[in-house]
């Protein structure tokens, strides 16, 4: 009987599709796990990159501080070198002043000794000398001249004594000044030397800190490289699993179609053609059986729609034998459906306009327009501008990157694209 034949075909196809669906579910679970691993690796990679950025910033600050310390150290070195030269010059000057002071002292001492001798002589022989001078003088003028000479000698001695005292005082003042300048230079030299040692210590400490940051940056970079490798590996696994899922779906559909064709051929060869005028009881039973079968075993939307449509036609007119709609591409809707042309149950993924999804951020689509969420999808095999109805939303094909049968839906953020994951849905073409 034809009604039983159709129900048998539906049951066979539904069971085959159900088995295929379990395989798809397993693959989808693997894809979801791979995407979760990818998200975890991406989170770790973002943290590692943030650590590297922070360490690089701190290292640059220390390098700037190191440059300042180097400049300060060089300045101190030049100052110390100049002060050393000045200290040596002051030492030489102090030696010369001390030599002149010793020479002046000796000269003054000689003058002082000579003056003392004359004074002693004058006091001891003063009276006799004056009388002898008077008596021995040829004239009064000669006497006055000799007396004037004696007075000049005394005045000379007094002047020399004053000059000696002035010279000695000047040399002492100069000596004190040179000693003070030399002490100041030596004190400044000691201060600069201490400062130089301090700066040198800071340079060493800062260098150790910079080396520590370099080691930490190297370790974080290695961690980032490992995480990047994990992300790339997850991407590769996801792509492989998606291709595997697509192949499994195609194989399941082919197996369902082959099983249906085989069952149809078997039923046609074994059972006579059903005549509703001679066997109304079987028709009613078939109708009832078809209703129960649809409710219990149809796992796929296309099989359910097909069975319900067929059952409605059959129950409305039991005297006329219905014809099953043609299903040349494995779909349940014809090109005249109100939802448009049924293309098939396609694989759905998601992407956004970030650098991780597209290599660089902010790119236009392959059609030249900027993508928009809830509107733009990517799929090869159809012209740009093709409108697709997916899960009640109308999308427009504006981008490439996936083969026909795999629709990549654009989202406004990377988080939304990741949360979408991998899905399957019926796709209809509206134009």
UniProtKB/TrEMBL annotation:
<dbReference type="InterPro" id="IPR059180">
    <property type="entry name" value="3D_YorM"/>
</dbReference>
<feature type="coiled-coil region">
    <location>
        <begin position="24"/>
        <end position="118"/>
    </location>
</feature>
<feature type="compositionally biased region" description="Low complexity">
    <location>
        <begin position="283"/>
        <end position="292"/>
    </location>
</feature>
<feature type="compositionally biased region" description="Low complexity">
    <location>
        <begin position="250"/>
        <end position="267"/>
    </location>
</feature>
<feature type="region of interest" description="Disordered">
    <location>
        <begin position="249"/>
        <end position="338"/>
    </location>
</feature>
<feature type="coiled-coil region">
    <location>
        <begin position="161"/>
        <end position="191"/>
    </location>
</feature>
<feature type="domain" description="Peptidoglycan hydrolase PcsB coiled-coil">
    <location>
        <begin position="104"/>
        <end position="172"/>
    </location>
</feature>
<dbReference type="InterPro" id="IPR057309">
    <property type="entry name" value="PcsB_CC"/>
</dbReference>
<keyword id="KW-0175">Coiled coil</keyword>
<feature type="signal peptide">
    <location>
        <begin position="1"/>
        <end position="25"/>
    </location>
</feature>
<feature type="compositionally biased region" description="Acidic residues">
    <location>
        <begin position="293"/>
        <end position="326"/>
    </location>
</feature>
<dbReference type="Pfam" id="PF24568">
    <property type="entry name" value="CC_PcsB"/>
</dbReference>
<protein>
    <submittedName>
        <fullName>Peptidoglycan hydrolase CwlO-like protein/3D (Asp-Asp-Asp) domain-containing protein</fullName>
    </submittedName>
</protein>
<keyword id="KW-0732">Signal</keyword>
<feature type="compositionally biased region" description="Acidic residues">
    <location>
        <begin position="268"/>
        <end position="282"/>
    </location>
</feature>
<feature type="compositionally biased region" description="Low complexity">
    <location>
        <begin position="327"/>
        <end position="338"/>
    </location>
</feature>
């Amino acid at each position: 009987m034809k009604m039983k034949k159709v129900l048998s075909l539906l049951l066979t196809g539904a069971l085959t599709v159900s088995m295929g669906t379990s395989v798809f579910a397993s693959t989808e679970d693997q894809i979801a796990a791979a995407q979760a691993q990818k998200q975890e690796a991406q989170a770790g990679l973002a943290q590692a990159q943030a650590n590297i950025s922070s360490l690089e910033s701190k290292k640059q600050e220390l390098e700037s501080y190191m440059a300042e310390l180097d400049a300060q150290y060089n300045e101190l070195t030049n100052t110390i070198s100049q002060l050393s030269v000045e200290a040596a010059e002051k030492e030489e000057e102090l030696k010369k002043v001390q030599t002149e002071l010793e020479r002046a002292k000796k000269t003054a001492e000689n003058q002082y000794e000579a003056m003392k001798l004359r004074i002693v002589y004058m006091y001891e022989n003063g009276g006799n000398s004056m009388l002898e001078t008077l008596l021995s003088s040829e004239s009064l003028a000669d006497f006055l001249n000799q007396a004037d000479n004696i007075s000049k000698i005394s005045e000379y001695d007094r002047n020399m004594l004053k000059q000696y005292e002035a010279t000695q005082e000047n040399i002492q003042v100069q000596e004190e000044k040179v000693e003070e300048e030399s002490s100041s230079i030596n004190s400044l030299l000691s201060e600069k030397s201490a400062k130089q040692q301090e700066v040198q210590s800071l340079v060493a400490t800062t260098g150790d800190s910079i080396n520590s940051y370099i080691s930490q940056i190297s370790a974080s970079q290695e961690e980032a490289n490992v995480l990047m490798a994990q992300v790339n590996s997850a991407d590769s696994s996801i792509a492989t699993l998606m291709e595997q899922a697509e192949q499994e779906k195609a194989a399941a559909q082919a197996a369902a179609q082959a099983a249906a064709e085989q069952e149809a051929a078997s039923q046609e060869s074994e059972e006579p053609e059903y005549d509703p005028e001679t066997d109304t009881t079987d028709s009613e039973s078939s109708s009832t059986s078809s209703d129960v079968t649809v409710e219990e075993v149809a796992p796929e939307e296309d099989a359910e729609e097909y069975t319900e449509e067929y059952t409605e036609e059959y129950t409305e007119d039991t005297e006329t034998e219905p014809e099953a709609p043609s299903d040349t591409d494995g779909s349940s809707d014809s090109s005249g459906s109100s939802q448009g042309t049924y293309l098939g149950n396609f694989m759905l993924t998601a992407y956004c306009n970030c650098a991780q999804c597209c290599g660089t951020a902010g790119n236009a689509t392959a059609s030249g327009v900027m993508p928009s969420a809830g509107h733009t999808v990517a799929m090869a095999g159809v012209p740009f501008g093709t409108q697709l109805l997916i899960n009640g939303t109308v999308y427009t094909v504006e981008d490439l990157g996936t083969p026909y049968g795999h629709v990549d839906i654009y989202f406004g953020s990377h988080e939304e694209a990741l949360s979408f994951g991998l899905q399957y849905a019926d796709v209809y073409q509206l134009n």
